[in-house]
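[Q] Does anyone have a clean structure-token version of this?
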Amino acid sequence: TICPNPPHMKITAKPFVSVLVFFPLEAGTPVNGNDEVERNMVLVEKLAYSKGLSPEAISIMLEFAMSLRMGTSLCARVLKCLIPATLVPQEAVVRAVVWLSVGKIPVSTQILFIKWVLTVFDMIDAKDQLRAVYGFIFNFVTEENLCPFICHLLYLLTRKESVVSCSMLILFPQGRQPFLLSLLSLYKVFCPEMVMLSIPSRIKSGFRNHNMPWKSALIAVQKGAGPHVAAGISPASTTIKTNPRKRKRCHLELPVMTSVVSKEAQTEPSSCGKVVPLVQLHSFAQLLENMHRIELPAQMGSLLGSSLALQYLDCVQDESALLRLNFWLGYALHEEFLFCGDRGASQNSQEALPFLDRLLSTQHFLQEGFSCSEAFLYKFLNVWDGSLLRPQILGLLSNIPVVPSAQIRQLLFEPLMQLFFTSSLFFKCGLMECLNNMLLKWLTWHSVYALEDDLDISLNSHTSINMTLSGFKDSVMELVDFVGRLASLGLQLEGCHSLLLSFVLDFYETVCDMFMKYGLPLVVMPPPGVFYPALFATDPVSVDRLAYIMHRWGLFTSCFDNAAMHVQAFHISRQMVREFNHYIIVMVNCLWNSKMFQLDMGLSLGEDLLLKSKVPQYWASFDLVHHPAFMSYAVDFHHRVMLAWRKDMDLNSIKDSKPWSWYLEFLVSQGYDGLKQFVQSNIGRQQLPADEG
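[A] Here you go.
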């Protein structure tokens, strides 16, 4: 291992100029024992790791390495110290690519060179000449060892005009490797007729992180901290050993939007006539004027920080841009939350917070999530502690598209159930809100994208997955049943806490509107573990909301009178009708008729036990007068109205005909419209006969 010179050795401009003059050596110059070569190499390494190399130096050293003028021994060493200070000349990269075809460069060195190109790709001053030799680069796909890295480079260079026939890819011994599928998926976007291979809608990211030999040095040079890291970088080593416990996040900073076309090229009329860099647009009017001539930035992650870029994605629906953005996001999320040691994500949450907030705002703007964040969440939920960046993670979770019923248990329900029962009350409330938002998005998507004949519906405009209406209903039913189980057990664990009950009722308000508001022919009753805690709640708001929910479900009865909406069209079973009728009977007898604990109510208690409670008139303990949630209103009403002709406190007097109607109006005036609607739609109405279902 050759280490850089000690700190006392200074590099001035003149000595380094002489170094650059020295390196265009003649072929065959010996290496072993050549002290002058070694001395100049040390000077280059010292400058590279401290300040970075200028474009001119990059060109000279890259030509020296790839031409093998001094054999293969120095080639890898030179490549590892090519740390650019500013830009990388495109011409130098093109010449180096041409040297690959000579056949004398070892395969390991060829791979190292392609890795270097991938690392500095966004620092190359232009890409037009590289795209001009796209077909030449494509020929290296047949090299088994180079194929993963060449596919990555082609993925970054691909434009519609550069797509070539890729049927030969299917014949490769690598088969359906992720890196090939990723490149083919991009080809299929531009020229679907040229790709006969079926591409999965969800494929594993095929491109790995290849920039480790230069990563730390690039960051240090860009931040001006080169001398502090130079000593820890071994120029001759293949990889840099980093301590995962001290790893710093570097992917969560949104890159600055830059053009893939050099500034010199932008001034040429020929370049300006073809494309307009997105970075040069500053208004929506300019965006509309140049909509079909826009050149996307070098770093796709920079799109998240530009409102104009998001408007472009929303208007044009550029599939290639979405694919590239998905790749960048997936890489950042996996690297910083899944692959960092010792829970590295929690060490730099200040960087992760704005990144995830920006991702959430982007998804809200586009009104759909990214497939990469969906794949990330399925893995992250298994290692998440439920507290790290909880609002952001739950926000991303609520944007997940419809999950097939056969997969939803393993991907979502199992990890969420473990988190739910081992976390605090506030996490339970947050998860209930998240699942409610998820259901709302699913129902909204159904109401917008469902076909009129209800035979087939597509998940979204950027995926090939289709789901039948019955499959969609199965997924919704699975979600509602899962929330019902969580809510029932959660309310028991938390002592029917009013805050948790409020979020649970939010969810069931969405459920009761699935048909009336979103057109989904599905009826689901709340489980007893939700219905009875809401009915016997000590706060009047919960009882009022339950009354509203039952009123909304009662509106389904109008469908039975419409021949075009037969019961079977809603898949309402006899059991569902019995549950609905039972809940209505319980609420009417409890709140209105003062007939609590009757044998036909499902809540019958032994007569001896009821007498031992010593509660007078226990059968009326939960009517609208004596219910714990409304007793304070009954007392207030009695003081305001009844004391005008009664001096003693007798709440039972409110049940007389005239005071009772006044009392109901008094409750409605307090804002309890749910009770009003329930009474109007259910009191004195015949229940549904169970045999009609």
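[Q] Thanks! Anything notable?
[A] Strands lie at 276-277, 294-295, 456-458, 466-468.
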